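User: Show me an example of a complex going from sequences to C-alpha cells.

Assistant: Sure. Here are the input components:
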Amino acid sequence: MIGLPAHFSRRSLTRRQILQTSAAIASGMVLSGCGWTLAEVRPALSKGNKDDLSIYTWESYIDPQLTETFHTQTGINITADIYDSNETMLATFQTGKGAIYSVIYPSDYKVAEMIEKKLLSQLDHSRISGLENLLPEFQNSVYDPGNQHSVPISWGTTGLIYNTDALNPGPEDWQDLWQMQQPLNRKMTLLADVREVMGATLKSLGHSYNSTNPTEIKQAYEKLVQLKPAVTTFTTDAWRDRLLAGDLLLSMAYSADAVRLIQENPDAKLRYVIPRSGTSLWSDTMVIPTTSPNPDAAYAWINFMMQPSVAADVTQRLFFATPNQAAYDQLPAPLRNNRSLFPSDEVIKACERIIPLDAKVTELYDQYWTKLTSG
Amino acid sequence: MTNPSHPIANQPDSQVKPTWLQPLLMLAPAGVWLALLLVVPTLLIFELSLVPGIRPGQVVNPSGLDNYLRIVQPDYFPVLGRSLFFSIGTTLACLILGFPVAYWIALKVPHRWQNLVLLGFVLPLWTSSLLRSYAWITILRPTGVLNTILSKIGIPPLDILNRESAVLIGMTYSMLPYMVLILYAALEKLDRQLLEAASDLGATPPQAFWKVTVPQSLTGIAAGSLLVFITSMGDFVNPEILGGASSMTVARLIYNQFLGATQNWGFGSALSMVLILVVSIAIALLLKYGDRSAAGGV
C-alpha cells in the first residue's frame, strides 16, 4: 500500500470521461459479419492535461518519494493505479479505462501480446536517452526486439524463499521440494500461477518451462499431485507475514518480493535461492499505449526512470534488479554482489522466459490446474 | 335497427387505459436500468456461452453447446460439488447459529432494546468483506490469535487455516447477519398465545418449540436459508483467501476463465449461466415457499 502525497489525487471520473468510457464500451461491440467482436475495446482517445500523468503499475514499483522527485524535476503530477496481475491489467485497460493511462508496466510476455493487439505505440528512440546503458541482453529481447515498444525497468527470477533455521540444509533445486515433503508438510506455499508452478515442475523433470508436449505436461501434473498434500495453498502475495511468523517455512516467490522481504527484515532467518536446474526469468517494462493522453509526460517519466542515479536509488529502496548497467555500477557493493538479486550469468543461462503459448496448450494447462486445485 | 350508443364510447381515452400501466412513467427509470444492466448483459453472456473457446478480440459467432458439454465432464464435478458443499454447509451453520440468536432477540429481549441488539449484529456488515476475511487469517493461522489462546489454556493447537473448515468459518461469519435478520422478522410475528395454549394443554417446552414455533417460522427459515445459499454460491473472497490448495469453486473457476491465462470467455460464460441457473432455481423456491415479507425486510 502506498501513501498518497498531496499531489496525488484519487481519480474521479468527470462527466466527459464517463461519456468517453461508455462510447468506448459501446464501440467494443463491433459488428462484423454475422457476429460481433468480443471486448476488443479501443479505449477512446482523450486529451490530457499536460501536467498530469497517469501510470498503471505494480504495487512495488512506485512510491511517494519517486513521484515527488519527478514532480520537483518536471512539475508533472503523477496519479498511479496499481494492479496485481498482467491479466487484470489488460482486462482493465481494454474495458475503456485504459484511455487515462500514459505509461503501463506490462511483463515481457504481455508486451508481446499487447504489440500483437496493436495497443502499444512505437517508441521514438530519439526522445529517450540512456538506452545504451541497458545490459546487452535487454537491448534485444525475444519479446520486443530492439525495444521498439518497451523499455525494461526491472528483471528477476522465480525461486524459493525459506526459513534457514528450520530447513538446514535448505533446498537447492525444485526436486528438493519433493524430497523435503516431511518437514515442509503444510508449511509451504506455491505461486498462484499455473505457468510458474507447472513450469517449475516441468523443469524438475528436465523439460522446458514452456513445454507444449501434452505427455510432458501430464507428467508434470502427476508429479504435482504427489506434492500437493504438503502445499498449504497457492498464493502470490499472502505468504510474507506467515513466513516471518514461522507459520510457513518455504514459499515459491518472485525474487523482487523475496529480496525485499529479506532486506526489510534483516533479523529473520530467511534466504532466497534460485533453483539449480533453472527457473523462469522475467522482466517488467514501461510502455506507452497508443491511446496515451499525454505522451510527452510519458517520455519524461521514462527518461526520468532511465537516469542511472534514479534507477540505482530505486533499486536500493524498492529492491528490484535494474537492467541498467550504469545504475548497477552505482550500487553499493553488498547489493551489487547480492546473487539473489543479480544472479551469475551461469545461473541465468539455465533460466527461460515464460512465453505465451497457443490457446489449445494454454487450455490444457488450465484444465490440469483446475484438476489440481479441485481434486 | 340502430345501434344503441355505447356509454363508454364518448369517454376520454385515458380512462380506457388499464390501471396497471398507469405508473409506467415512474417505473421507467428502474426498468431501463434493469434492462440495460441486467437483462442485456445476461443475454450477452448467454450468447458468449454458445461460442466455444472465445477469447477477447475474436468474432462472436454462436455455434452450439460445446461449452456446456465441457462443464458436464467429470473434471468439473469436484468444483461444482465443492461449491455446493460450502454453500449448504454455510446455510446449515448459519441456521443452527442464527436461530437461537433470532429467537432470543425476538422473544426475550425487551422491545425497546431489540433494534439496538439487531444493529449490533449487523454492524460487521459495515466493513469490507475482504478485510473480514483477512482478519480470519490472523485469527486462524498456526501462530495466530486462536492458537495463542488455546495454548494458554493447555489445548493443543488447531491447524484450521487453508482448510475447508476455515472457508466455512469465514463464509458463516459473513452470512450470519442476513440469516438472523430474516429469522427475526419471522419470529417477531410469532403468535405467543399459541405457545401459552400449548403449555396449557400439557406440551413440554421442547414439544411446543418443535410443534408450534418451528412450523410458524418455517417460511422465515426457508427464506433465510435460500438467501444464504444463493449468496454463498457466488462467494469468491472466502474460498480464495481462506481456502487451501484444494479450494476451487465455481466462482473462482469463472474468475480464472475471464482473468486467468486462458481467457476463455466462452467457457467462463457457460459456467456463469449454470451458476445463474442454480441461483434462479433457488430464487424460484424462495418465491414459492419463502416468507416474502421476511425476505423483503432485509
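The lines above are the inputs; the final block is the predicted structure for all two components together. Residues 7-11, 293-298 of chain B have pLDDT under 50 and may be disordered.
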